[in-house]
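Sequence, structure tokens passed on for absentees:
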Amino acid sequence: MPEIRIYSKKQRIPKDLSIIKIDDYPGLDPVNIGPLNLYKGWRSNNLHNAWEYSKVYKEYTSNGQPTQAYWDWASKGWDSDKPAKVSKKKYMYHVWDGAKYGIIEARKRIFASIYIKSIFDTKDYAELRNAVNNCNKTVAIVASQSLDYKKSSLTEALFSPDKEFGYAFLLVMMIAKDQSLMDIP
């Protein structure tokens, strides 16, 4: 298997790498994954909205618990066909099936778990995996989000609350059979 690096669309990519663009595999984008059964009868039209509307903001709580206003807001977001705008606003926690999670547990239990199960047997994932495995030199995966590979590993991206985590990281972890995936329920 070749070495795989992730680059953002804005980064300069060395010419000696094989370039694979995630955008060429639209079925792997969380906005295109769904509809999904979430829990307790809740559904979301796509994984992106399932994730964004699992975030609980202070204004939607009373004594630290989600209020009816939260559930109204979340269900409207889950029902929307339009992808949610990603808010940079600080949220308190993620709520999922009666449990509250911080960012790391939420990445594992909500986003990564659903994502992996949703795309593992898809045509787009098989084609991406084959494209990577058929390269005989280092592969540059071009995605919307990236991190500096000289400063961080894929595992650090998954387990660091200070790092942005995009689905390209999960794809590379899956293709590389990264051991940290063993922590995904």
